[in-house]
Amino acid sequence: MSSNNADLLLEDGAFASSKNSWNRYYHNSVVQPLLTDLYQITMAYAYWKSGKIEDHAVFDLFFRTNPFQGEFTIFAGLEECLKFMESFHYSETDIEYLKHALPNGIEEEFFEYLSQLTAKDVTLYAIEEGSVAFPRVPLIKVMGPLIIVQLLETTLLTLVNYASLMATNAARYRMVAGRHIELLEFGLRRAQGPDGGLSASKYSYIGGFDGTSNVLAGKLFNIPVKGTHAHAYITSFTGIQELKTRVLEHKETGDKRDLLELAIQHRSQLSKILDISTDESSEGELAAMVSFAIAFPGGFMALVDTSGLLNFCAVALALHDQGYMAKGIRIDSGDLAYLSCLARETFERIAERFKLPWFSRLTIVASNDINEETILSLNEQGHKIDCFGIGTHLVTCQRQPALGCVYKMVEINTQPRIKLSQDVAKVTMPGNKNVFRLYGADGHALIDLLQRVEENPPEVGQKVLCRHPFQESKRAYVIPTNVEALYKVYWADGRVTQAMPSLNEVRTRVQESLKTLRQDHKRTLNPTPYKVAVSDNLYNFIHDLWLQNAPIGELS
Question: Residue 63: is its pLDDT beyond 50?
Answer without folding.
Answer: yes
